[in-house]
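Inverse folding, one chain.
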């Protein structure tokens, strides 16, 4: 993988990035949101075992990366052997995570899977982690990329602003940790010419 690795979420800003932009890029996807834009990631990272099984069937050209325990909860079942890369990890503290870093050989799990995807990108050799679609808010009335489904377990729901605020806070913490621990920068893609957003309105969670 190259020194620049793009880590993609499922936010509505992906709607505003032309598909051609992604050609030739090294891409790590958090779950499947970017595939709805026709993006073909090199890796799909998930904490959800049912997603890993589904992704292995739907996206054979991508490598599937999954936490050993469902949702990163060490009290949940371990995933069976399969066509995926399994990540060892500490207990997922979810919204209570405030900077605890995993032991050597283990990967970070927090409230949002994007932090695991960021840590995976560093494992791949990223010097620069570049986020896209990690909006943690709404552009206009859209909180997710078009077509992102809501699972029966609540994953992917579009009315979870209290979760998005925590996602954002934890991502900022991980950004600082990756710089201090690995000298890795974390930035993001703005699909507009500047923060005026070309007339679009952004509402923070």
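Residues assigned per position:
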């Amino acid at each position: 993988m190259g020194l620049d690795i793009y880590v993609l979420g499922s936010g509505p800003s992906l709607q505003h990035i032309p598909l051609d932009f992604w050609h030739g890029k090294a891409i790590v996807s958090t779950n499947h949101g970017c595939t709805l834009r026709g993006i073909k990631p090199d890796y799909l990272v998930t904490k959800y075992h049912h997603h890993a099984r589904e992704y292995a069937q739907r996206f054979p050209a991508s490598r599937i990366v999954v936490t050993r325990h469902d949702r990163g909860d060490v009290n949940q079942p371990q995933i069976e052997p399969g066509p995926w890369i399994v990540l060892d990890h500490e207990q997922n503290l979810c919204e209570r995570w405030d900077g605890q870093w995993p032991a050597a050989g283990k990967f970070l799990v927090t409230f949002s899977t994007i932090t695991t995807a960021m840590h995976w990108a560093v494992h791949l050799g990223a010097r620069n982690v570049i986020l896209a679609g990690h909006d943690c808010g709404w552009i206009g009335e859209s909180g997710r990329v078009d077509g992102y489904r809501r699972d029966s377990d609540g994953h992917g729901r579009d009315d979870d602003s209290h979760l998005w605020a925590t996602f954002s806070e934890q991502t900022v913490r991980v950004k600082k940790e990756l710089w201090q621990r690995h000298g890795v920068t974390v930035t993001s893609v703005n699909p507009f010419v500047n923060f005026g957003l070309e007339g679009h309105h952004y509402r923070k969670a």
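Residues 50 and 152 are 12 Å apart (CA to CA). The helical segments are 49-58, 114-124, 161-182.
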